Structure formats: structure tokens, C-alpha cells
């Protein structure tokens, strides 16, 4: 028994004998491009000692080895095996292909790789000639006018490939998906990645992916073994998610709100690679479909005291188990806790009535600064107090928002610690500078010098 791979249209002999010749290179609708796949397939089957015959219309092609001696520069000799092709039928000819039998031996190692090439080329040739590619078992070898046929002995490996034909080629399982990027999830854990509808790899993952993925020419680079770098594929997946429609994004966001998936760990640089109004609309529409008017939050934020405080204020908060997706969604206009209640409130700083100590501390500090003529022409700032919603051990003593005329002091700090906090925040107010800036340091150095002289 044989596995027959057939397509309408007769392939030229050069498709099987001339290394580098390709009828598909430059055609965006085809799978092939290198001009080496068929030849590597032939060599691989020869090395595996799997019998096969190719029929190009009425011409039968059979391949075999001939021994050849090579003379080295040091006078020694070694033997190699050269691939030959014998044609019969309409054309009787012996062709010296001048290929070493070991060409591709380091990379082309699995029988399925040869079968993939023959089927891929059959799909390309069939499409070019307005027909369909067929793959089926046949009891005998017979050429057919107007068709190209490849007959490969039905070994267990070949039989396994045939049984999984639909998984390896969207052309046979669901041809409508060949032009799609996001594919319904298959049985593997990590995403299966296709190129022009042909399976090239399954990416490693400890958690399931939401989709399998299909790329076309220009999307990714593959080598002559039809392999591509895993990190490159992850980046390309993220770029496609970036531009996905609202329906696709809604599926991803919904699954991330329920559990861990592969896409949650995509790189945020590529996930937000392109920004325009259409992309923003897709992301905001997707979130509205999934969560309505709820605020988006990471797992840590959704389970924090801040989120609980926000819920008590009447907001709904929905968790998405991916920091990168949350950050990207916020960038594209999806509302989060900070956009609803302000950045400082989102960090757990809740404004409350100004405490007497906070006011007194700022009055005292300002008196020192006025006495040293270091106010830089500014009036005394007003004072606001806040309390910190504790999240672990983090607690803010005080803060100043640039451009405002008030300082913020934590109600829980009094005594020396409260005075130090007031001094620092008033220093930010006077200088308008940040903690590590030279102006901020210079202000306090001058203050110490003026106070001591």
C-alpha cells in the first residue's frame, strides 16, 4: 500500500531535480518559497529507505544512489553517494542530480518533514491549476494524465501522518481558516502555530492558550526546515493580538478573568506595538462586552484594600490575570481604579479631615523656612491629611503633587516623624523638585548652613 499525494496540473521535472528552483517563490498565496523542500523530501526518504515514486503526468521519476570517489587535496580519497533520477514513460532519461545523499542530513531527520513538503507543494500546484489536492491510500502506482502524483510506501510513520492530516493542514480540516490568524483552540496545551495553513510548531506552555495561530508570508520568517524562533513567534502573536478585533479581544479578556492562559504572559511592548483610534475602540468595546462598566484590575489590585474601598464607593472591579493585558487595556482607554478615583487614591491614600498636628507641623516648618528667607517668594501651603489603606507593609508618610498649593501628610504620623514628614513635603512644595534632584538637596543643605551660622 502507498500514500498517494495528488494535485491537478503537471509539475515540471525541475521541481524535483533542480535544487533552488521554485514555482511558488514570490507568490503570496502559496506555501512554498525556497525551492528546496521537494528535494530535501526526496533525500530524506532515500536516507530512511522508504520506497517512493513520483509521477509528473505520464513521466515516472525514480530516485537512487550511485557511488562516487572524491579526491582530496592531500592525495587521499573518500567515497560519497550521489543521487540519480531515472525517468520512464513519456521520457526515458537518466539524470545525474549532483546532490550528495547527505545534503540536509543534520536538520531533515523526521519522515513527516518530507511528507509535509510533498503535500504543501501539491496544495500550491492544485490551487494554481484550479483544482484540489488529494491525499489517500492507494494499492498500486499509476500515473495520471494532467496530474502530479507522489506515491510513498505506507509505513507506520506515513500512516500516522495521514491520520493526522487535518491537524497538520488546515486545507483538509477547515480550508476557510487558511486566511485567518486566530484559530479555534486545538487539543495541545500551548498554541499550535501554522504558516499558510501548515502546522510548523507547537509552542511550549504550562497553561492552555486561548487560540492557535496562523501566519502568512510577510508575517514571520521561517527557515528551510520550516522552523521559526519561539521568541519571535511570541512577539508576532502579541502584535496580532494588539490589532485583533473586539470579538477576539473579548474572548482573551474573559478567559483571563477566569484563569491563567498562555497569552497572559505576552510581552507588553509588542502587545501595545501599534496605537490608533480603531485599536483603542476595539479594546474598549471588548472590555465593555466582557465587564460592562466595571473597572479593570490586576489580580493583586483586585484583591487589595484599595479595591475593597472602591467597591464600597459603588464601583465594580473585575480582575484580569495578566499585568501586561491590564496595562495595555488602560493605555487604550479602558478605565481602571486610578482613572475612576485618582492616582493617589488608587495607591491607597484616602483623603480625610486635616488633623491638628499636621497643620501645626506645617506651621512650624514654614516658620523656620521664613526665618531663613528660603520661601522663594511662595506663600505657606495649605495642609491636607490622608490615611493609608495598608497593603502589606507599605505606607506613605506624605506626598506633594507638583503644581498644587498644598501638601499631604499622613494622619498616623505625629511627633518627630510627623515634623520630618512636614519638612520634606514643604521642601518639595518650595523647590518644585523631586527627592533625588540636585535642587532638593541644595535647599536642605542651604537650610542647615543658614540655621547653624
Secondary structure blueprint with pairings:
Elements (H helix, E strand, L loop, with lengths): L1 E7 L5 H4 L19 H12 L3 E5 L2 E13 L5 E13 L3 E8 L10 H18 L5 E5 L8 E7 L2 H8 L1 H4 L1 H4 L8 E2 L8 E4 L2 E5 L9 E4 L14 H13 L3 H13 L9 H4 L5 H15 L3 E3 L1 H4 L2 H8 L4 E3 L3 H9 L5 H5 L1 H4 L2 E4 L3 H16 L10 E7 L9 E2 L6 E5 L4 H17 L6 H15 L1
Parallel strand pairs: 9-11, 12-13, 15-17
Antiparallel strand pairs: 1-6, 1-7, 2-3, 2-7, 3-4, 4-5, 8-11, 9-10, 14-15, 16-17
Helix pairs in contact: 2-3, 8-10, 16-17
Task: Please tell me about this protein's structure.
- The protein is built from 18 helices and 17 strands.
- With 453 residues, the protein is of the alpha+beta class.
- Helix 16 packs across helix 17.
- The longest helix is centred in the N-terminal third of the chain and has 18 residues.
- The N and C termini lie far apart (104 Å).
